[in-house]
């Protein structure tokens, strides 16, 4: 049981809490620290979206739980408003659990144009206040968010420390005043100062938002942006976006230098980020991209409030569209015969099942009434999801691998010419290298076999000398020691102590003969 685990300070990163624990207890080894806290020596510090939060919450007072830590001490809230419900549920489970989850990829963070900070950032005046109030310093989470470049409390740009928070050098949890050494203040164009201050305020508000706007899927986001464009007269025709007007609004409001600062200056290419965010959403976009577009399109209102308003409208439009299709489970008399038949089908089946029942009907409606059928399908019956079955029986697969390994080893026993029987060699013979290495914990029998029968360097050298000894006896030759070793692919310098004793014994027998 962990005792005296630090209580998180306001807006403190979980990374920083663990760093203070290491300082308080004098822990110098990162492997010992992760083993003590998480019973795992191979964890890498993650500052933004750390896992194992259920375990960490158990070290804290009763008023703390994993959900509290997620809301107040991780960076998940900045993704929360702009992600579908299913993704957010997955993210919460990933942060709470102890299993590896590809969360950064799931949230679109790895592929985003908005790059994460690479070195921890801080405000010296905030640190001075922390020292006066708490007697120590800590990393605030808002400092480590791209877009929060300016301390709104002390009216100055943040400083960048020499402590990496990403990349190969992030091997230890660090939180101390040594970060002041080799630090430098962020520099940006004076004309963008007000915009940086505005973005910092919006990010603070985004972190403070505890209410979650329910977004069922990316189609709801697409509908919300369509309504915004429609209300701002940015549509030419019925559905075509007047992109040049929208592009000019973004440039006029934010300026090209600020967009370039965040790698968002490319607004001319056919597949640029602005065109994609205004079209049908097929993937997640960064919180910063959403804030920049929403504020430019509706400058007189708070972009977060604008977003919530139009998400609600988009959801309401879908409900109204569904209501026009079916009223008290009766088919609307103004619909065509095909539409009536389809409406009847989706009252009993899901959209996919209805399509399978009458594919010709679906094809006619899709060709002639595409908008109607797409809206109608959203009111179709949603079948209860069946319990997910494990796709892989790991125990059975583990037994199969061990049987294959036993067979492989039996075949190799008489083969003195084979390469060294390392763990990697055996795994390659199975043809499932990636699966075994990524799911090592699911193969205890395979791991036990490899630990027992993997060939050490001593054994491998002895086997090679045995092969040469047998060959020279068959050929009725007697090699000098240097030639004998060369024929074995060895040298005096490379022999291990055990192999050297074996070689000396062989040479004594040859002399005695």
UniProtKB/TrEMBL annotation:
Pfam families: TniQ (PF06527), TnsD (PF15978). Residues 5-158 form the TniQ domain. InterPro entries: TniQ, TnsD_C. It comes from the Bacteria. Residues 203-297, 321-450 form the Transposon Tn7 transposition protein TnsD C-terminal domain. This is Transposase. It comes from Acinetobacter terrae.
